[in-house]
Amino acid sequence: MNGKIQKVEAEIEKVRAKITAQQARLRELEQQKTELENTEIVGMVRGLDVSPEELATLIQAIRSGKAGGSPVALSAEKEDLEDEE
């Protein structure tokens, strides 16, 4: 085989190896980001002073559009839940 072709093939293999390594690194970083986001979400949820049932109700209200998602709307929703008890 031609020496130039061999050099190009060798370069192709180097690039493929680098791409594979970078894809693995990308997957690791994406996983790390997801874990950090989950930790942040758990921290925010734990910071709320609501029971799991109240939290579920709040989430359902947000999903159905009954609560605007603003802190004022969420606070009003929480007060409504407390009044119902």
Automatic annotation (TrEMBL):
Give the matching InterPro entries: DUF4315
Top-rank taxon: Bacteria
Q: Where is this region: Disordered?
A: 65-85
Tell me any Pfam family this protein matches: DUF4315
Q: Write out the coiled-coil annotation as residue ranges.
A: 5-39
Q: Write out the entry's keywords from A to Z.
A: Coiled coil
- Answer whether the UniProt record assigns the keyword Coiled coil to this protein: yes
Report what the protein is called. DUF4315 family protein
